[in-house]
Amino acid sequence: MLPGQGRMSLPHKGKDSSPLGMSRWPLPEPMRIALDEAQRGESAGEVPIGAVVVKDGAVIAAAHNAPRGLHDPTAHAEVLAIRAAADKLGNERLDGCELWVTLEPCAMCAGAIAHARIARLYYAAADAKGGAVEHGARVFEHEQSLHKPEVYSGMGADEASTLLKAFFARRRQG
Ligand SMILES: [Zn+2]
């Protein structure tokens, strides 16, 4: 059993955001791994977003954003992690699996999550511009959505958005 897993409500953080790695609550292992992946992505010149798939409490796939490196506009962290997990399980459906990702998924990734039948989605930072879970298209709220995962957001949000802000600040300078 992972800490922070389950249906209990999540602790709410105060407005004073903590610097990276200084969370007031220890992050669940999958979100820490997703944040590590995001950092790995940044080192590879990608926008720092990471994702992991968890089955029965074990991480079975982890990936970072890689559209630049792979020359693939669909190579978002979620899609890569879902592909790797499905390959590992030998099944196109990830029934009972969790997806942990550092940023609110876009419409494409939300579609992939529905196709994969992901049971629970945990995302760290909200994305008012590109997100499609609690913003924009709100993919899972449509009647036509194939599948609606349980959604939990906010854990690791400070860490995830600090990474993204630093990345875009450096890019503007460069
Ligand atoms: Zn995406």
Topology:
Layout: H1 29-43, E1 50-55, E2 58-64, H2 67-70, H3 77-89, E3 98-103, H4 107-116, E4 120-125, E5 150-153, H5 157-173
The structure holds zinc ion.
Explain briefly what this protein structure is.
The protein has 174 residues and is of the alpha/beta class. Helix content is 34%, strand content 17%. It has a five-stranded mixed beta sheet with strand order 2-1-3-4-5.
Please, could you describe this protein's structure?
The chain is of the alpha/beta class and 174 residues long. 34% of the residues lie in helices and 17% in strands. The chain contains 5 helices and 5 strands. The protein has helices at 29-43, 67-70, 77-89, 107-116, 157-173, and strands at 50-55, 58-64, 98-103, 120-125, 150-153. It has a 5-stranded mixed beta sheet. Helix 4 links the parallel strand 3 (98-103) and strand 4. Helix 1 runs parallel beside helix 5 (157-173) and helix 3 (77-89) packs parallel to helix 4. The longest helix has 17 residues, at 157-173. The radius of gyration is 15 Å and the shape is globular. The structure holds zinc ion.
